[in-house]
UniProtKB/TrEMBL annotation:
This is Selenocysteine-specific elongation factor. The keyword NAD does not apply. It is found in: Cytoplasm; Nucleus. Translation factor required for the incorporation of the rare amino acid selenocysteine encoded by UGA codons. Replaces the eRF1-eRF3-GTP ternary complex for the insertion of selenocysteine directed by the UGA codon. Insertion of selenocysteine at UGA codons is mediated by SECISBP2 and EEFSEC: SECISBP2 (1) specifically binds the SECIS sequence once the 80S ribosome encounters an in-frame UGA codon and (2) contacts the RPS27A/eS31 of the 40S ribosome before ribosome stalling. It comes from Diacronema lutheri. One of its GO terms (cellular component) is nucleus. Keywords: Cytoplasm, GTP-binding, Hydrolase, Methylation, Nucleotide-binding, Nucleus, Phosphoprotein, Protein biosynthesis. Its cofactor is Mn(2+); Mg(2+). Signal peptide: none annotated. The keyword Nucleotide-binding applies. It catalyses: GTP + H2O = GDP + phosphate + H(+).
Length: 608
């Protein structure tokens, strides 16, 4: 871990020392039964300098890891560089109290995400742990580039969004109401193409008269003695919109670690969010990236010792004999429950705001949890035999993508949070057609064989987001290209495993008519090289204009005979029907088949 990161963790390291105290290890230090708290993780996202950290500070009553820009470089540069965590308690709404399974209090944990374009991978990683999202918009500037990208990330990771129109105090009082209403209409129009079209909007001034100095060391940051404006209304809206998150203690532990730092004499503290399963003091957990297992020495939730924690909880965990420098971000899990992979089958969908093309074999950035690596993909979809013809011939160019109405439907289709609709098991027995690129004007599920340049560790079903982070930051474009779910992993270089993946390309060989022998027999030539034995193609179908026939065998040197007895034309009718036509042998070749067989659909004909 860099030296400045150690400095940044100094404050929270002091706070976290209580985690490592022996009294917390077995829960005996707790004087009474702890209040059951329903924790809801809220992402605070938006463009750089929109006031996200000021908003988190105005809302929060408890600070945690890297909150409020503790990082020295954050203070120096005046922007958020890392994920910051803080929290505040609220009264549990009555509608939740009736169904909250014994919870007595509501806690909102705020995940303050960076807004700078270069830190979008940090935003993507942080957004995957949230239940709800606050999209912060600067009232003086409106929706900006990173606002739009954060909205895309929010569509993939959350079902509830509240738009926070910040810096209300920066609007002239005389025209404030008019400008605020104009901004509301503009934002509503931008949201109309998303699943958040009815999202509520709350106007606030998180830090009156001091927003321009957010995170800086300037004296201006301390000038305002005015309290924040609109925070109470925002909390009321959050309570009104919050729903009971789906939580389960079942399944293996998946702990997403966002910070890791040492405490002298105690061990290493890992802070993060439990995405699935449970964790308890004295439990053995695995750090799969480091290939080590360690025992949980103590657990703490916002400075309070705990004997256990479950899905959705944000915790600090103390373990011994773990090198903090080796794991700034990563995963802890039930031993043996995670897999490290470099090749995987992923169900994918395009992100409609991406204007580029996601081409097969082209490189892109792939984010899985807190990890981003370079990757390439081979895209494929369900074979459409009805459109392609009985032999699987390439469909007409007009069908290369969906029609305009289908494109419109695809563009407006709602995006289920966390891409939950992509989790259907992959069917290896099906045939799939190779695609040169990911199709954008369709709502159908597509797939990709994703190959990573470096291995990553995740669960099956993990959410993946593909992006082009190399794009010019000055361009007003969305860099997020597509998203998906990992359905299966394939061991790199395992040709036998790849052969199970039945992805084919449409192929065709063409030849010429040598002569028409009679109404049902035609002699052809030029279909294959003179040195190729034509008899290996015997029994395969050929197309000749409107006629469909079968190769019966060779005819002399480099020629072959075809049977067209299925039609009822006479000799003259045949000659007229095939005038100017070429012989076409249509077939499929499965790209992962080591024997490279030629296959025709329908009758299962195969030729090597």
């Amino acid at each position: 871990m860099p030296e400045e990161a150690h400095e940044a963790e100094g404050a929270q390291a002091e706070e976290a020392k209580a985690e490592a105290k022996p009294k917390a290890a077995d829960g005996k230090g707790e004087a009474k039964k702890a209040t059951r708290i329903l924790n809801v993780n809220v992402g605070v996202l938006g463009h750089v300098d929109s006031g996200k950290t000021s908003l988190a500070r105005a809302l929060s009553t408890m600070s945690s890891t890297a909150s409020f820009d503790k990082h020295p470089q954050s203070k120096e540069r005046g922007i958020t560089l890392d994920l910051g965590f803080s929290a505040f308690a609220a009264e549990l709404p009555e509608r939740l109290a009736r169904n909250a399974a014994g919870f007595e209090q509501l806690q909102f944990t705020l995940v303050d995400c960076p807004g700078h374009a270069s830190l979008i991978r940090t935003v993507i990683g942080g957004a995957q742990i949230i239940d709800m999202m606050l999209l912060v918009i600067d009232l003086t500037k409106g929706i900006q580039t990173q606002t739009a990208e954060c909205l895309v990330v929010g569509e993939l990771t959350a079902d509830e969004l509240i738009v926070v129109l910040n810096k209300l105090d920066m609007l002239p009082e005389a025209s404030r109401a008019e400008k605020l209403e104009r901004m509301r209409k503009g934002v509503r129009k931008a949201l109309s193409q998303t699943k958040f079209c009815d999202a509520p909007m709350v106007a606030v001034a998180a830090r009156p008269f001091a927003e321009g100095s957010e995170g800086s060391n300037s004296d201006l940051a301390n000038l305002s003695a005015l309290p924040p404006v609109g925070i109470g209304e925002l909390i009321d809206e959050m309570r009104a919109r919050v729903s009971l998150p789906t939580r389960s203690d079942d399944g293996p532990l998946h702990f997403a670690i966002d910070h890791c730092f040492p405490i002298k004499g105690q061990g290493t503290v890992c802070t993060g969010t439990i995405l699935s399963g449970t964790m308890a003091v004295n439990q053995m957990i695995e750090f799969p990236e480091l290939k080590v297992e360690r025992k949980v020495k103590s657990i703490q939730m916002f400075k309070k010792p705990a004997s256990s924690a479950s899905q959705g909880d944000r915790v600090g965990v103390c373990v011994t004999q773990l090198n903090a420098d080796a794991l700034e971000r990563g995963i802890a899990c039930t031993p043996g429950s995670m897999r490290t992979w470099t090749v995987g089958i992923v169900a994918v969908r395009p992100i409609r705001f991406f204007k580029g093309a996601s081409k097969t074999y082209a490189k892109f950035h792939l984010t899985v949890g807190h990890t981003t690596v370079m990757a390439k993909a081979t895209f494929f979809g369900v074979a459409d035999d009805a459109a392609a013809g009985v032999d699987g011939a390439p469909p007409p160019a007009a069908r290369a993508d969906a029609d305009a109405p289908a494109a419109a439907r695809a563009a407006s289709a709602p995006v289920p949070a966390m891409a939950a609709d992509l989790l259907a098991p992959f069917e290896f027995e099906r045939q799939y057609v190779f695609q040169e690129a990911l199709r954008t004007a369709t709502s159908d599920v597509q797939w990709a064989l994703v190959e990573l340049e470096q291995p990553v560790t995740s669960t099956l079903g993990a959410l993946l987001i593909a992006s082009h982070l190399e794009s010019d930051l000055n361009l007003n474009v969305c860099r997020l290209a597509f998203y998906g779910r990992l359905l299966a992993d394939v061991e790199s270089g395992d040709s036998a495993a790849l052969a199970r993946l039945r992805v084919f390309k449409h192929k065709a060989k063409t030849g010429q008519v040598d002569r028409v022998q009679d109404a049902h027999t035609i002699i052809g030539k030029g279909l294959v090289a003179p040195t190729t034995d034509i008899n290996q193609f015997a029994g395969m179908r050929v197309h000749l204009g409107p006629l469909v026939g079968t190769i019966t065998g060779s005819f002399g040197k480099a020629k072959f005979k075809m049977d067209f007895s299925a039609h009822d034309l006479d000799l003259k009718g045949v000659q007229e029907a095939i005038k100017g036509a070429q012989i076409e042998l249509r077939y499929r070749r499965f790209i992962y088949d080591p024997k490279r067989k030629m296959v025709q659909s329908g009758d299962g004909r195969k030729k090597t």
